[in-house]
């Protein structure tokens, strides 16, 4: 089950590993993605702080860690094929975090709450 | 596209005869120190080169050939006398190291021109001193924020933040970051001005500077500006005036009188020097008395007996931000322009710039959205938001349509606080016929959007290229020519 | 009024359209108490009067003497085609090429410029220019800090001291440790450098030929920098790259330099332009505009500004730099300059500088009371040690019709009697011989 942040990241939790991506809405707002700057494996992630960076032709944005912990995997395919985010944002993960406090996951927005949030923008 | 200059190369052609070498060859250097093969520069005759670049030039719009109503860019006519003077041997071929050698006798004319320029800029802005060394607007901004940093450091102030409005040019926050300040962005009120209440919430003793553009980037004069200055000063935060829009206020208001501590000017905008396709500019920075000691090297002095000379470096100076006097030949051209205008001419500039912008606003406001329904200053901001919502024709579409009629697009999608923004700055040098033609073409575009929105995908149709695939450019980067 | 086309009739029509009686109504938003109290400027002048004023000022500058002054700013040939082409209004009065369809001329010229710089430096990517060689060096230092995420920069003592001052100013506001070395005579102080290179270093900046004109082999230094993953930042005078080992061949990570010598006037120091080039892998850390080649919707090739998401107008405080206006016109001049010279011409130009300077050096060396400071081979300038003070030397030489060189004691401690003498392709044998005779005469 995906949960969301106000900054448009999604996260799915499997045990203590969170898979993180960006919402369809965010990708649509950014337009054609041209580059994703990924963190290094082992880098620590702090909830709500910048962990990666994404660029389109006309915009650039931080990607914020939805959960705290340590980066354990990055989607290296994005380095050569950033367009896969435009093709299917919800199926394209960006990085994985080994979370330090699984309780944080409960504080994220569920899909309905996130949809209400983006409708208000 | 035309073939690149590399593809026109022919082995053995040469575009220039070098002076004959009259001395023998010196002994060759050790191979380890030499490049292994010649640089693969193209080989062409002079005529090949002339034809190539002449033909390239024809693929450009320019102020001499086209109306260029780019908001915030002040694309006015550049008088030709500037070029004749800039090319004079005494200016063009003057060596800057006479400065290092401290030989003012070889550069009295250049130092005099700089001193006159400094004095005129002081009078125009109400500041106490200027540095003429910054080479562009953003370079001036950085210099100004460095001066503010030095001021606070000397006073022992602990400062972390620079405040910018959300309508600011991107250079403002980028500059703050270059000088290692954190940026606080304040939202604009419904009139497009910095919201004074929101400002009061974020101002604190930790704020180093407040960067403002006056009139602001929606082309309006912020009536709360004096109050913002006063509040900032209570916290020993200095007021920074971004001079991008000075053309609106020449002879009307002076930043120094209102309470600004630092200003930068864009001589290539307000004072009519050619933009050169993106530069060079010149971004002198003016300061009030309390910041003079921090000004960067170099500064010109004058004494009756001595003549013009270079002042000694102040012990508090921030140092050097460009090698000598920045883009000297650009400043020289600006001074030429200023002298042809004089006092009355300069006051007339802002009056006619504002008149022209309001003329265009009045003609277009029935056809596009008007986010701020009031008289504007030297530029007006309109929006295609309704058109986009109803007909899916965007600001970009209108911009591209205009290109087909020899009209450069206005500034689009800036300021960021207006959706589908179209920002138009005609400047004072345009005549009524050109503005009428422009307005008619904008109106035609709006009408076409209502009847045939699909047509816009095709524009522009008459230029060397149609719309370019910018996504491809970024994803499969090709930024240099290489032999296959 | 000059440069405003408004007739009385035009103005009345505009008032009527706007719905005002007088233009002062447009300024109602500006409170009276804020309006100017003083605006004391001279009256405007005719073009003729202005020209006469400036002609007088120009004549108060001295450009008449034979120039042996260099130090980063050189008296090189400027082919006539450069003024003719770069002075075309379509280039000269164009704005930044944000609307690609209306700017293919500027954009293609910039793409060609970038390509030429890559050929000259042996590096893979470059931008569309910085302000000058000094600010390009400061940006190179900031770039090394971003790339390595370290905060120590070492600058060699052979780097142009004016550039060092600029780098110091730029870095002073950051938490960056800047180590400025001293040279050992005219060379890199290798022992000191070796002791400084460790894994805390972001980059080492050097200049080849250095400010004294000396050429060195930096291969081993660069290797040792790479062992600790520090970047090698090389500054060089572009004409020298016509014959000397390139930054690319040396495996330097960043090149910075000043483009004045590539077809731009001395102009009392500006406008010139800064060159910044690097390896492909660092392209996203490069500041400033970059032009790329792509297709338009009809599949024609098209040039556009690309990777703009690095820049201030999109990324704001997270941009790679705050630079916006650059020195575009000067890069156009450089592009034309390099195209006119071509492959053989550019090398020949470099060799002529080298041969002329070495001739003058050897002739001066023959004089009994002159010493040459340089122990290393030189490119087109060198340092002479005089039995008299620099000022006395320069003044006497100027009376004989020469700008004889650059006083180094205004730039370095303990350099009282040293002058940097530069020679370009423009100096004839007669001029050099006469220079030597004059030196002999005054010493």
Description:
- The complex is a heterotrimer of chains A (121), B (484) and C (443).
- Chain A is of the alpha+beta class and 121 residues long.
- Chain A has a single domain, classed as OB fold (Dihydrolipoamide Acetyltransferase, E2P).
- Chain A is 20% helix and 37% strand.
- Chain A is built from 4 helices and 9 strands, in the order E-E-E-H-E-E-E-E-E-H-H-E-H.
- In chain A, the strands form 2 sheets. In chain A, strands 1-2-3-9-8-5 form a 6-stranded antiparallel sheet. A 3-stranded antiparallel sheet of chain A has the order 4-6-7.
- The model of chain A has no long low-confidence stretch (mean pLDDT 93).
- Chain B is globular and about 75 Å long.
- In chain B, helix 5 packs parallel to helix 12, helix 6 crosses helix 7 and helix 12 packs across helix 15.
- Helix content of chain B is 36%, strand content 11%.
- Chain B is an alpha/beta fold and 484 residues long.
- Chain C has 443 residues and is an alpha/beta fold.
- Chain C folds into 2 domains: 110 residues, Aspartate Aminotransferase, domain 1, CATH 3.90.1150.10; 258 residues, Type I PLP-dependent aspartate aminotransferase-like (Major domain) (Aspartate Aminotransferase, domain 2).
- Chain C has 14 helices and 15 strands.
- In chain C, helix 3 packs antiparallel against helix 12.
- Classes of the chains: A alpha+beta (121), B alpha/beta (484), C alpha/beta (443).
- Chains A and C meet through strand 4 of A and loops of C.
> Tell me about the biggest sheet of chain A?
6 strands, antiparallel
User: Tell me about the biggest sheet of chain C?
Assistant: 7 strands, mixed
Low-confidence stretches of chain A: none
CATH superfamily of chain A: RNA polymerase II/Efflux pump adaptor protein, barrel-sandwich hybrid domain
Strand order of the largest sheet of chain C: 2-8-7-6-5-3-4
Q: Tell me the distance between the termini of chain C.
A: 60 Å
Amount of helix of chain C: 25-40%
CATH fold-type name of chain A: OB fold (Dihydrolipoamide Acetyltransferase, E2P)
Q: Quick check: average pLDDT of chain C?
A: 97
